[in-house]
Amino acid sequence: MPVQDNEDKRVPDQPAIDAEEELRRRQAQEQQHNETSVQKSGKLLPFLNAKAEHHQSRIDSLDEKIANQTDKIDRNNAKIEALSAKADKLEDTNRMLKATVGGFPLVQSMIRKNEERIRAIREDKIPKRQQKNKAGWQKIDKLTAKRAVISHKFDRVVALNDAIRSFSIGFNKERREVFADAMTRLNEATVECLSDKKAALMAQKQEIMNTYNDPATNTVDRFRLQQKINDVTERISALEDRITKLARPVTHYEDFTNDELDASMKLTSDKIADMAENDDVTLPELAEETVTAAQSVEALDKAHVTALADKFNRQQTADVEVQLEDDYNMIDGIINNGSKEDIDKAKTELADTIKSMESLADNPYVPQEMRDNAAAELVKLKKQMELLADSDEVFVESWLSEMLDNGTAELTDNGFKVNADYYFELPRNDRHYETMTEAQAVTVMSALTASAVDFSAMSKGEDTVSITVAKKDVPVLNDLMFSAIGKVAKTEAAKENAGKGDKGKHQTINPEYYSSLPEKERFTSTEPVKTAQAITAELEKAGVPFSAVVRRNDTMAITVRKENAPAFKRIESVVKASLARERIPLSPEKAQAKQQPKRTALPQRQGTGYFSRKEMQKEAQRVREQGKKQDKPASAKKKDNQGLE
Fold first, then answer.
1. Domain 494-587 adopts which CATH fold?
2. Taking the model in full, what pTM does it have?
C-alpha cells in the first residue's frame, strides 16, 4: 500500500503551488482512490458467481437425493397398502371357509397356510417396509437440514454479489433500493449461517456430554472431555455475541435515510475493496465484515454521514461519466443514459477505434512517442468498452428481474428460461429457432411481447440465448428482429437468396432484408431518389423494415413485405403530398401562359418592344430551321408516293 510522504521537498527557488490547483490535485487523487476501491470490489464478482454455482449444484444434488428417498417411501407405502389388502383378503377367505366347509381336513390345511401367510405379511413384510420408511424419513431429515445450511450459504453469496453490483447502478433511487434489499438479505443470511454453526456446536457439545455422563467413562477421560466441553461452550458464547451484534429487523435498512444509505455504501465498498486485496480472506469473513461496515453508520453523527454520502455520490458520478466522456470537464452532474440503439452504436464505433489504436500501438514504423500515446489511449478505450458491456448486463438483468416477478421466467443452471411451457406445447416440426446474444434477445423478446407473439426462450451457454416461435410467426419475428437488432431470421428464403440482394454494382440499403424475403412476399415501388429518401426516412420512424437499391436512372426501388404494403402506401402518399406543398406555386400569369398553345411568333409584350438575348437567339434558331425545311427538295421516293394517299 503506498504511503504518503508529507515532507515538503520543494527547493527554495520553486514557486508555491496555487491553492486552487492544489485542491484540484487532491480531489483528483481522492477520486482515483475511490474508483480503485469500486474496481477492486468488482473483481470479487467472478469469485462470488463461482461460489453461487457451486452451492447451487450442491442444492440440486440434495434435491435429487431427497426426491429419490421420497419416491422410495411412496413405493413402500404403495407396497404396504397392497400387502395389507392381501392380508385382509386372506382373512376374509378363511372366515368364509370356516363358515362353509371348515370341517374337511383339506380345507383346514388351506386355512392354516393362509394364516401363516397373513402372519408373515403383518409381522414381517409390512414392518420391514415401515422400517425402511422410517430410515428414509431420517435420511430426508438429514438431507433437508444439510440443504438448509447450504441454502443459507447460497443466499449469503447471492446477497453479497447483489450488494457489490448495486455500487455501479447509475440511478440513485434504484441503487439505494437494490443495496437496501441486498443488505437485508445479506444480514439475514449471515445470521442464519452463524446460527447453523451454533447449532452444530451445540450438537457436538451434547454428544460430548453424553460420553462424559456415561458410567463407563473413567476419570481421566472425563477430565479431557470437560476441557472439550469448555472449549465448545466458549465458541458457542462467541457465536451468540456475534449473532446479537449483527441481528437486525427486516425493515432495518428501509428506515435509513438517503444519506445514511449512501454513507453505508461508501463504507461497505471501501471495506470490500480492502478485503479483496487479502488472498486469505474467507467468504464468511467477507460477508460479516460487510454487514458490520454497513451497520457502523448507526454510530456516526449526521455531519459525518453527510460527508460520506457526498463522497460516494461524487465517486459514482465521476466513475460512470469519466469512462463515458472523453474529458472529465464534460461532467454535468447528470449521467447520460442513452437508448439501447445509442449504446450499440457506441460499442461498434468504440470497437473500431480500439482496433485502430491497437494497430497504431503495434506499428514499429511510427515514432515511439505516438505508440506510447496510443497504448495509453487503449487503456481508456477498453475501460469504456467494459462499462458499455456492463450496461448490457444491467439491461438484461433489469428485464429478467421483471419477468421473474411476473412468473414468466425462471432461473436455471445456465441462465434462465422464458415461457418454457409454450416450447413443449409446440409440435417439434413447427418450431423455429433463432440464436443471439442476451442483450439482443431481450430487445427481440420485448418486441415480441409488445406484438402479442407467443415465444419461448432459453439461455444456451455464456451470453447466448435461443428464441423459439411457431413457424407461422416467422415473418413477424423477421421484421421485429431486423427492426430491433438488424438481423434477419435464418429461413429457407434467406439461405436461398443469400447474396442476391447486394451485387456491389449499386448503392443498397438493408440488402440482407431483401434476401430474407421470398419473391412472392415482396412489394417493390420505384420512386425518384429524393422522394424515396423521404419515404425510407418515414419507414424507419414507423418501424417498417425495408430494403432499397439506387438504380442508374436516378431512381430508387424500395421493397417491403406485402403485409406492410398498405403502410408503405400511406407513407408514400403523405410524403408526396408534403413534397408537392414545398414546391413554389406558379403566378397566375405563368399558369395562364402555360395553359395556352405555343405560338410561332414572338409573344407580344405590353408597352415595350424589348426582348431578352436568350429569346432572340431561340427565335433566330427557329427561323433558320424553318427556312432549311422549305428549301430542301423532296426525295425521289417522296415524289413517287405523292398523290397515293
1. Gyrase A; domain 2 (3.30.1360)
2. 0.46
